[in-house]
């Protein structure tokens, strides 16, 4: 019998010894070295979060007549006008693209941009544009274009650029211009409310000269009147007499235990000790 027990215990010990290396290997967590060099090369200014405080929008015009930059309604956005000079090859490519469609025009304008970090607006000065041509067209690249020759303060092109830039390109965070999304919902309420005041008195012989009902009427009458227009409101007052279970709690000699003697409970009315 003793040999059988020894064999069982030995089998468990042997299994534990054999499984311990495997279990230890499975519980190991592979630790990869941090790319310290790459982390040190990170630059906040070069990231997309470290952009400039002021944003500039380039307005390129194909017209030979220079015009002043239109004003911006946002303090952190400024418009900069440029006269775009195209060679014969570029002019031919642009004219062909304008007759081919919006996608071709968008692709050609992408090749004419000199600064890809700023949003750009091209004024193509297309005299053959149809009357139904949009005032401003936004492409898939970082630019938009218009068939007009110039942009002036308050005209349709200026309004379209302002709306595009301030709402989508460089959204403004001015809370004064943001209309909160307010929804009206019916508040859930009950049909009956009850407010109860309880005065707890330890000694029944202690007189109480205050009128609880008068105090409630004095301080809560206006509140009850207002709430009563919505639902039934009841105010209740009561005086509750209570007594401590024991006047004193006895401590042991070493102060580690506390108990109540039978004689300490005799002052409680209706309590009997057997």
TrEMBL record:
Domain of life: Eukaryota
Pathway(s) of this molecule: Glycolipid biosynthesis; glycosylphosphatidylinositol-anchor biosynthesis
Compartments in which it is found: Endoplasmic reticulum membrane
Pfam families assigned to the protein according to its UniProt record, in alphabetical order: PIG-S (PF10510)
Its membrane topology: Multi-pass membrane protein
Keyword set, alphabetical order: Endoplasmic reticulum, Glycoprotein, GPI-anchor biosynthesis, Membrane, Signal, Transmembrane, Transmembrane helix
One record GO biological process: GPI anchor biosynthetic process
Residues making up the signal peptide according to the UniProt record: 1-24
InterPro entries: PtdIno-glycan_biosynth_class_S
A single cellular component GO annotation: GPI-anchor transamidase complex
Recorded coiled-coil stretches: none
Protein family (similarity comment): Belongs to the PIGS family.
Record's protein name: Uncharacterized protein
Organism: Phytophthora nicotianae (strain INRA-310)
